[in-house]
Amino acid sequence: MPTAYVTAPRDVAPVLAKLLVEERLAACVNIVECQSTYRWEDDIHHDPESILFVKTSGDRYEAMADRLKAEHPHAVPCIERFDEDLILPSFARWRDDAVGGSD
Fold first, then answer.
1. Cβ neighbours of residue 23 under 8 Å, at least 6 residues apart?
2. Helix axis angle, 13-22 relative to 61-71, nearest 10°?
3. Can you tell me whether residue 79 is helix, strand or coil?
4. Cα separation of 96 and 28, whole Å?
5. Distance between CA atoms of 13 and 49, rounded to whole angstroms?
6. Which residues contact 48 (CB under 8 A, 6 or more apart)?
């Protein structure tokens, strides 16, 4: 049962979140604004971004990641998977029902 950590430009994050939930690739997406400092093509960048915490099921993770890669404006989007060792069973049931699948 994974959660994905994704970063995106602030104006794009709500669009990605809505898309994932509408297509049942995520049960919920939390968006948190942040400031990112990173190296790209040997230059240092400081950009306002958003962090998306994408709650999905193991069954839907690959489809969710593929959809994000297709829609994300960055050439190399940050999509990291967190696997859960412990999760509240009632939350896991809700999430799996919301995405239409289970692990």
1. 67
2. 140
3. strand
4. 11
5. 8
6. 9, 10, 33, 34, 35, 36
pTM of the model: 0.84
Q: Which domains does the chain have, with CATH numbers?
A: 2-86 (3.30.70.120)
Closest residue by Cα to residue 90 from 23, 27, 5, 21 = 27
pLDDT at 101: 62
What span, in angstroms and rounded, lies between the C-alpha atoms of 11 and 61?
Answer: 24
Going from the first residue of the chain to its last (103 residues), give the mean pLDDT of each consecutive group of 10, the final group possibly shorter.
Answer: 90 98 96 94 94 93 96 94 81 84 53
DSSP 85: S
Token digits for 18?
Answer: 């809505």
Around Cβ 58, how many Cβ atoms within 10 Å?
15
Per DSSP, 64 falls in state: H
